[in-house]
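Thread: Newbie trying to understand structure tokens

Hi all, I'm a second-year student working on a class project, and my supervisor (Dr. K.) asked me to get a predicted structure for one chain before our next meeting. I've only ever worked with sequences, so writing a 3D structure as a token string is new to me. If someone could post the tokens and maybe explain what I'm looking at, I'd be very grateful. Here's the chain:
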Amino acid sequence: MFAEFTHNYTPIAGNVYLSAIVAAIPIAVILIMLGVLRTKAHWAALAGLASALLLALVVYGMPVGIAFSSALNGAVFGFWPITWIVINALFLHNLTIETGKFDIVRNALAALTTDRRIQALIIAFSFGALLEGIAGFGAPVAITAAILASLGFNPLYAAAIALLANTAPVAFGSLGIPVITLGGLVAPIVGGDETTVTNQLSAMVGRQLPVFSLIIPGFMVYVMAGWRGMVQVLPAVLTAGVTFAIAQFFTANFIGPALVDVLAALVSLAALYLLLQFWQPRTAWRFEDEPDTDQGSPSVAEGESGRPGPALGFAAGAAPSGGGSTFQGFLPYIILVVFVVLSRISELLPGLAGTALDLSGLLTSADITFAWPGLDGLVTRVPPIVPEPTPYTAEYTWSIFSAAGTVVLFAAIVAGFVMGAGLGTQLRIYGRTLNQLKLAILTIMLILAIAYVMNYSGMTSTLGLAFAGTGLLFPFFSAFIGWLGVVLTGSDTSSNALFGPMQTITAQQVGVEPALAGATNSSGGVMGKMISPQNLSVGASAINQVGREPDIFRLTFKWSVVLTVAVGILAMIQAYVFPFIIPVLGGG
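---
Reply by user tm_fold:
Sure, no problem. This is what the structure looks like when written as tokens:
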């Protein structure tokens, strides 16, 4: 038998700000251990969970049973559906590497042009977004940085470009995990259906990030080659950015978060491919002092030297040749898109709902939903967080077949056989994938456990009430809260888990639509990805430059802050000039 528990948002002397300092301790523990002590992420998350449980029990008076039940609920949600998607997405990616299909794609992309600026657009921006959509969690930076370095980019330069490019797609990485996580945490707060709230948050993020998808390609080339160098390849810059932004907007708003990066990246890659069939820059831009031995490409014309742009500058080497069947290389990704679309068919074509062709309904018919024991209805939220005392629900849905991770698993198995990987090979690769992700799985489960303990104890609400003091400027600061979360955790998913609920509650208090705050947490967070210590380490490791993380940091820090300021300004404009574009969470 579990005792009931009523929230108290000011347990320290009845003062919300003193209480907020205490409530922030679990987050501070994580950030200090990661950013100052440089502790491994799973140990930092474990310490954060221990401090959250201690505060919930001692300071907030949460009963022991409810506290541990909330932590378990969060950990289970962290595994299914969150890491379930990550496991199977990375499994698909590992299969493409094992069967050589990844090399086909890499070489086909490199063969499209010898111009370094356009290679960066194709590989770091468009192909990197595809990798972000499939695998995420550092894989895009590691893989694209390594590819660029193999083509002749200076390794540090390659890592910096890869980090700059890995911004706009991050919020929808790993088949939409950051937004799906945010939706699952925010839905109980706003009293909405989890799927509906997730799709609404997807739509709102999809009304912010396309602006930056238009900017990032030109921004990357400007950093590489200066303003003049960027203008010389403006057709490619616009093609990459505009097509990606349009596909990103429509997918996020009308399909949902799972396929945003995959479809936008494929559209952008296809558009660049078509462009390069009838247009190439007048001369192939090369790095200063780069030997002219790359596949017989023309040297840079006089007056168009490859002198580095205003922020970065290194010499480069030579690039290997490559080739293969582009269709075969991209077939695994096409299979993935088909499977995910079929699994959401009734959402895309409502007329099929309830018919024999409603695969979505068939998959969801196996869902199991139940009230989480020892938690559902036992916690009461009180004013000013809610108008009147209200039970805090805690339902869990085990979506056995309809979960995005299961759909990806089916797609990966089929794609594996198509690529020539037999059952034994697939089992071996799956085991390797689990081993590769074991600590990441643990970390995500612990982070979600912390978020649930903080939500159900009232600590998150305490922080929200304190941040409400920023008033009209809250949308601007919302971007930097998300940015800080990603800088120090390395993950937009973790940042959304830690700060998303607080941002939602704060928005309710200051009179801003919660969807804007949640989306801005995610959109601002992605701009911190390029300077996160974890991602800097991933980039440095991929190019065999361990220890040079500070050099990469110096190359990207300024741009990270500038872009986050831009997100904050956009959020302010959306909040007070165009509020009609913000969905009302739970409003259907």
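A couple of things are worth pointing out once you decode it. The chain has 24 helices and five strands. The longest helix spans residues 64-98. Feel free to ask follow-ups in this thread.
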